Amino acid sequence: MKSNARVWQPALGAVLVLALGGCGRPAAPKSGTQAAATSVEPAAVASKPAAPAKKEVAERYPLTGEITGIDAARKVLIVYHDEIKDYMPAMTMEFIVSPGDLAVAKVGQRIRADLIPSETGDFRLEKIWPDEKLATAAVADAARGLREDTKTRGKNAYREVGETVPSFTLFDQEGRVIPGGHFRGKKVMMNFIFSRCPVATMCPAATAKMMATQKLAKDAAVPNIEFVSITLDPVFDTPGVLKEYASVRGIDTTNFSFLTGPDSAIRDLLTQFGVIAELEGDFLKHTLTTLLIDERGKIMHRTDGSVWEPKDFVAKMKQP
Ligand SMILES: [Cu+2]
Question: Can you give the pTM of this predicted structure?
Answer without folding.
Answer: 0.82
